[in-house]
Amino acid sequence: MHFRGLGPPGSLPLRRPVAIAGIDRKRGEVTLHLPSTDAATPWLAMRRAGDRADPIGPLGRPLAIEPRTHHLLLIAEGLSVPPLGPLTEAAIATGRRVALLLGARSAAEVYPSSLLPDELEYVVATQDGSLGHRGSVVDLVPAYEAWADQAVASGGPALLERVAHLARGRDARLGVACLGRRTARRGRRTGRVTRRSWLSVVLEQRVGCALGVCLGCVVPGASGPVRVCREGPAFRADELAWEESA
Amino acid sequence: MTLAGDARTLTDISVDLAPQRPGRLLVRTPFLAAAGCLGYGVEGEGQVPLDRFGAIVTRGVTLAPRSGSPPPRMAEVPSGLLHAIGLPGPGIEAVLERYAPRWLAWSVPVILSLCAAEAVDFGSLAQRADGVPGVAALELDLASPDLARGGRPLSLDPTLAADATAAARAATELPILVKLSPAATDLRALARALVEAGADALTCTGAMPALAMDPRGGGPLLGSAAAALSGPALRPISLRVVSEVRRAVSEPIVGCGGVSGLPDALEYLAAGADAVAIGTAALADPALPARLGDELAAHGPVARPGVTDRRRQPRTPHAARPR
Question: Which CATH number fits domain B11-320: 3.20.20.70, 3.40.50.300, 2.40.50.140, 1.10.268.10?
Answer without folding.
Answer: 3.20.20.70
